[in-house]
Design brief:
The complex is a heterodimer.
Chain A: H1 13-20, H2 24-59, H3 63-78, H4 81-104, E1 113-114, E2 117-118, H5 133-166, H6 169-177, H7 182-193, H8 195-212, H9 224-232, H10 248-278, H11 284-293
Antiparallel strand pairs in A: 1-2
Helix pairs in contact in A: 2-3, 2-5, 2-9, 3-5, 4-5, 5-8, 6-7, 8-10, 9-10
Chain B: H1 3-10, H2 29-66, H3 70-85, H4 88-105, H5 115-140, H6 144-152, H7 157-187, H8 205-216, H9 222-248
The chains are: A mainly alpha, B mainly alpha.
């Protein structure tokens, strides 16, 4: 990186460290933090979409749809999520390949599953065998996002389901009295109002989501845990210009501090958002804010 | 090989009793059920021991956090912040390498770098932080009237805490604590996927489920089996905690003593 880094042998102390921390692999390590942030940015709305779908299905008047929604919530919450993280990645991969296999190679003679092998025709491989490396990486990342969205969607669904039920019943009745259909009342009254009830649960879920991101490396994405293990492990002079002992404890300490900082910042942001959403609401929190803002009221 | 023979060979495989080698080919459904069930011994062990020891520390943390004295409050606050603010996964990694380093300095701590002791310490501290926060919240919502009534009868200090505050705190915290117990048991599956190595392929239920999924390249058999076991385990926890909850609420009129609800967050 720096010009004085050309000969690692001649360095010591801070100069050595400055050069060591700017090697290509370290740049990949710093980039992995961006991977985690991108995953969070993409997953949060995706999980919310799954959650909204799940919650609406669980509220549905059609029994099979309702059972599907409730079953989705109950099963995903009853089973450790790491099991789902390990399961979905191969299940989704095989599922997509099987679907493409059905479409692209309809006259394939052999069964797809032969003993312990899963075989699809070459045209159905995902990504295609001859595609460049970045396609493989994007595909792996997309699978990880989908997995996170399915798992956290169930938790979001249970939060949103509760929030939709917390919207005062009288309001829905009023809407219906004004001639709105069930669907209209849901879209115009329940949906805009439920957010202030859902926010504590969603905020909690966001914290849990942040703390689930180190599982990424289990899904085959080169994330910060992967690099911390790689870079921290003992390096011998034969393999590296910058040999050092087993430094994994320091790398994991850095990750620990990163996550502590990240969750702390999120906590503060969620607190602000809660205050903002509670303003003017006919709830205990909203009422106490109104009182606090009144002239001569109790100091907040 | 009949299913009964498989069960005899593998039922206690996870704790090192029975057949030494895992099946390598021609996996039967019976083998998968037996081995994954065998691994569940570890999940139950980690869960129960961490829950019982964590309970004691959690009470102390809650008292510390509610204390007026800065010297008691600050350590409790930092303890909760560190263990609730960082992923359990990273805590396991960090602890493993910290214990490896500790072993170099003090050889008597060698056991800590093995999963059965080291991971247990992490789970213990982790659950203590989460339950401590739950208990702290409950301690702060102990009704003022109850405390005044106790003081009016001359019950103060330690006696008041033991006979009024603590039981009321437990009663209020119980539904949330039930969730914490469920998620603790779910969190035990992380142990063998972190730095802590599985010695002689003795792992927990997820370890074996993952083994079968890797060998057969078919996730659709072992993971549903695992899911079934965990749903049963979750139901058992809800049942057991419900019994304790009913005992804690036995003096209240019927409708208040309803079963704790299963809500809340997932993993850390």
């Amino acid at each position: 990186m720096f010009t004085f880094c050309t000969d690692p042998e001649a360095l010591d102390g801070l100069a050595w460290l400055a050069c060591y921390l700017t090697t290509g692999k370290h740049m990949a390590f710093y980039g992995a933090f961006a991977t985690v942030l991108v995953l969070l940015a993409v997953t949060a709305p995706a999980a919310l979409a799954f959650g909204l779908g799940g919650a609406m299905a669980a509220r549905s008047a059609v029994p099979p749809l309702r059972w599907l929604g409730k079953g989705y919530i109950a099963v995903v919450r009853g089973v450790p999520d790491i099991a789902f993280f390990l399961f979905f990645v191969i299940a989704l991969d095989q599922g997509f390949e099987w679907l493409r296999h059905q479409v692209k190679c309809p006259d394939w003679p052999d069964p797809v599953r032969q003993g312990t092998d899963f075989l699809v025709c070459d045209a159905a491989k995902l990504p295609l065998g001859n595609s460049p490396q970045w396609v493989h990486e994007i595909y792996g990342f997309a699978l990880a996002v989908l997995t996170f969205a399915i798992v956290f969607g169930a938790f979001a669904a249970s939060v949103l389901y509760g929030a939709m039920r917390a919207v005062p019943r009288a309001q829905v009745e009023t809407a219906e009295a004004y001639g709105m259909s069930r669907r209209q009342a849901f879209r115009r009254v329940v949906l805009p109002q439920m957010w202030s009830y859902a926010l504590p649960g969603l905020g909690n879920l966001w914290m849990v989501l942040i703390k689930a991101t180190p599982l990424l490396f289990l899904l085959g994405v080169e994330d910060i845990v992967y690099w911390a293990r790689e870079l921290g492990a003992a390096k011998t002079p034969r393999f590296s210009d910058y040999p050092h002992g087993d430094w994994r404890i320091w790398y994991f300490l850095a990750l620990l501090v990163f996550y502590l900082g990240f969750t702390r910042v999120s906590e503060i942001a969620i607190e602000r958002l809660t205050r903002r959403l509670n303003r003017g609401q006919a709830t205990a929190a909203g009422e106490s804010m109104r009182r606090a803002e009144m002239p001569g009221g109790p100091a907040a | 090989m009949s299913c009964a023979a498989t069960i005899a060979d593998y039922a206690l495989r996870a704790v090192g009793i029975g057949e030494r080698l895992l099946p390598r080919s021609d996996f039967t459904l019976c083998q998968q059920f037996t081995l994954i069930g065998s691994g569940l011994i570890w999940n139950v062990y980690f869960g129960i021991v961490a829950l019982l020891t964590g309970f004691a520390l959690a009470t102390l943390v809650a008292i510390g956090k509610a204390s007026d004295r800065r010297l008691a409050r600050k350590p409790a606050e930092w303890f909760v912040f560190v263990f609730r603010g960082s992923p359990l996964f990273i805590q396991f990694f960090f602890a493993y390498f910290a214990f490896l380093a500790l072993k170099q300095v003090a050889p008597w701590t060698e056991a800590l770098s093995s999963a059965w002791a080291g991971a247990l310490v992490v789970l213990f501290l982790n659950t203590a932080a989460y339950s401590g926060e739950i208990f702290y919240g409950a301690l702060r919502s102990v009704p003022k009237g109850d405390q005044e009534a106790a003081e009016a009868y001359g019950i103060t200090g330690w006696t008041k805490f033991r006979r009024i505050d603590w039981p009321t705190m437990l009663r209020l915290a119980w539904p949330a604590y039930t969730n914490e117990a469920i998620f603790l048991f779910h969190a035990t599956t992380l142990v063998f996927f972190t730095g802590f190595p599985a010695r002689q392929q003795q792992g927990d239920a997820l370890y074996y489920a993952n083994y079968f999924a890797d060998k057969t390249f078919n996730p659709f058999v072992p993971y549903p089996i695992l899911a079934g076991y965990f749903i049963l385990l979750t139901l058992a926890i809800i049942g057991a905690m419900g019994l304790i909850g009913r005992r804690l609420n036995r003096h209240l009129p019927g409708d208040v003593a309803r079963r704790p609800r299963f809500l809340g967050q997932v993993m850390r």
